[in-house]
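Progress note, project year one: complex with zinc ion.
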Amino acid sequence: MAAAIGIKGHCAQCDMTFELKPWQLNAIAVDIPFDCTYCHCGLQLCCHKQLRQFRALDQWALVRPSMIMLTCATLVVALVAEWLGLLSMIAQFNLSLATVLIHFLVVRYARHRQRMTLELQVISPLPVEQLARIACARLSQQ
Ligand SMILES: [Zn+2]
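Model obtained:
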């Protein structure tokens, strides 16, 4: 989940929106309630649609590295094709320009999809064992 940045959570209890920390994202990923940064209410992501989007974030995080590889490969192929006389210099230039443009559009779209605000629902007061687990999760982050 390290690649997932800019994910915010909205607390249904105190109506605050805050940036989720890595340990909170981990808690959501494994379906463990955690407490709100502001009102310390127990929160959990209950919306199935958002949970599905949240789980898809890992795939979106892969878009950037794979696009970098794809773009580099295309640029090298275009360059080699020009050396071999398969492409004119103008064609090579246009192809490279289009590749770089597509690269930035795709990466931008992926980043847009990664930015989301999760609607967190309040759950009943946390049982002691869960509080202990939250404390453990917090300590392991430090
Ligand atoms: Zn709150």
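Residues 8-141 form one domain.
The first strand starts at residue 8 and ends at 11.
No further modelling is planned for this target in the current period.
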